[in-house]
Amino acid sequence: MKYELYYWPGIQGRGEFVRLALEQADAAYVDVARGKNGEAKLMRVLEDKAIAQPGYAPPLLKAGSLHLAQTANILFFLGARHGLAPKTESGRLWTNQLQLTIADLVEEVHGTHHPIASSLYYEDQKDEAKRAATAFVRERIPKYLGYFERVLARNRGRQGVLVGSRLTYADLSLFQVVDGLRYAFPHAMRRAEKETPRVVALHDVVRRQPKIAAYLASTRRMPRSENGLFRRYPELDA
Amino acid sequence: MKYELYYWPGIQGRGEFVRLALEQADAAYVDVARGKNGEAKLMRVLEDKAIAQPGYAPPLLKAGSLHLAQTANILFFLGARHGLAPKTESGRLWTNQLQLTIADLVEEVHGTHHPIASSLYYEDQKDEAKRAATAFVRERIPKYLGYFERVLARNRGRQGVLVGSRLTYADLSLFQVVDGLRYAFPHAMRRAEKETPRVVALHDVVRRQPKIAAYLASTRRMPRSENGLFRRYPELDA
Fold it and tell me: Which chain A residues have a beta carbon less than 8 Å from that of B59?
């Protein structure tokens, strides 16, 4: 069985958290919307009335007869199947909790360039974005990264990962967030990273995983752009 | 063992989704921050360096030696323990997926009165809030409620609930959202509810559950206010 991933073509977006897990797991998957008639296929699945358990929005993952949506939910599933989460219930809950906190951070990143409405262009909410990004850069980046730094410091697994002593999907996701924040807010991140050496080190650990390194060097990894989640608008990076 | 719930005192907020599950389960719990020195106790847990797996933000649930955070994660745990979710992995994932979609909606509700920053007063982002709420009311309420209406229509369990034929924590959460939206956006909801009779019926089903009805009539249920998640600012309800 090949997994089928459905996500908006052309951007990393939230789909990238799923891609990183699939790549690290060396799982067979098709990135459907990047293929021929990709967007039409994505829309067809979103609107398919035969799916009893429809997703609200991409990313969607088809795994045999299962249709899954919501990034953290898909990762919860993949983590258990592919050894990217602990086997114990408490370990799975802790990994899920970290992933949900990453999801909150990601939502706030989106809010820096779309504070008013997702349906409006950036250009139509630029002034508001500037105010939102100022607060985000000053208050939220240090608070979130400081939290993950504390989690890393308190983990007795001592392998520099978030959960226990083995890599989980939460590590992959934190890598993606650091990577994205560096792209979107290079100045702010230069300051913030000084206070969070463990977070920086984890980013490097993930980047050097053989499967991840191969993925990042491939054309499967899309370039960042100002259509994605993490956007480089210099006016938002004080 | 009594559960200990930690949430900001004085408001329903995100803690209410956990309270509703605890009440429906008839679980023994202490709502710690509502007791004496409540806020100090909450802050102490948030800052406790002895907790190896700290939460980023309330709600927090202490269950024996487990410290859990993130609303959907706490509910995932409680759902399994108290029969408020299916026993199968696929059923648990589907319930979780619905809960995460509810969480996204809740986050957007928060964004209608705090589009720029959580750290600023409403009064300092009132103009932006008006723009954000206009889009939310016009586009997002119908889209989200329409989604849950579809989920209810496609559920072959035919008991009017979201998942299978038994009540889950996702039903309790959707009740809370409908209730909150009615408080915050009475005009918009009057229009939206005409298109979503199944969602309205589910709200009534939950409201009439004996444990929930008793809870809602008790002083444990806090009144809504303009300090909470769902706020009635007439200027935001076109």
Answer: none
Per-residue pLDDT of chain A (238 residues; tens, 9 = 90+): 899 999 999 999 999 999 999 999 999 999 999 999 999 999 999 999 999 999 999 999 999 999 999 999 999 999 999 999 999 999 999 999 999 999 999 999 999 999 999 999 999 999 999 999 999 999 999 999 999 999 999 999 989 999 999 999 999 999 999 999 999 999 999 999 999 999 999 999 999 999 999 999 999 999 999 999 999 999 999 7
**Which of A62, A68, A97 is the best mutation test for B, with the most CBs of B within 10 A?**
A97
Cα separation, A25 vs A85, in Å, equals 11
In a mutational test of the A interface, the residue from B14, B53, B139 whose CB has the highest number of chain A CBs within 10 Å is B53
CB B133 within 8 A of CB B108: no
**With contact defined as beta carbons under 8 Å apart, do A42 and A15 qualify?**
no
**Taking CB atoms and an 8 Å limit, are A115 and B132 in contact across chains?**
yes
Say yes or no: A17 contacts chain B, CB-CB below 8 A.
Answer: no
3-state secondary structure of B193: helix
CB atoms within 10 A of CB B3: 22
Q: Tell me whether 0.90 is exceeded by the ipTM.
A: yes
Q: Which of B72, B115, B147 lies closest to A100 in CB terms?
A: B72
Closest partner residue to B115 (CB to CB) among A69, A115, A150 is: A115
Neighbours of B11 (CB within 10 A): 18
* Closest by Cβ to B156, choosing from A51, A52, A144: A52
Closest CA to A29 of A15, A19, A44, A14: A19
Q: Which residues of B140-177 are buried (b: 16+ CB within 10 A; e: fewer)?
A: bbbebbebbbbbbeebeeeeebbbbeebbbbbbbbbbb
| Residues from chain B contacting residue A139 (CB–CB below 8 Å) | 117, 119
Distance CA B237, CA B235 (A): 6
Chain A: residue whose CA lies nearest to B148: A56
- What the block records as the tokens of A53 is 């358990």
